[in-house]
Amino acid sequence: MRKLESVLVILDKPKHSQAALDKALSLQAATGAHLHLVAFCWHPMCEQREVFDAHQRRVMKKEILRVREEWLWDLVRDHKLNAADITVEVTWAKEIATWVAGAVVERGNSLVVKSVHRSDSFLHTPLDWQLLRQSPVPVLLVNIPAKSGKSARTPSGKKLGKDVLASIDLRHNDRKHRTLNLRVLDAAARFAQISGGKLHCVAVVEYSQVLSDLDFINVRRIRSEVIAKTQDLLAAMLEPYDIAKSRIHRPAGKVGQMVAATARKTNAGLMVVGSAAAGRGLIGSSAEKILDRAPCDLLVVHP
Question: Range of 287's domain?
Answer without folding.
Answer: 153-303
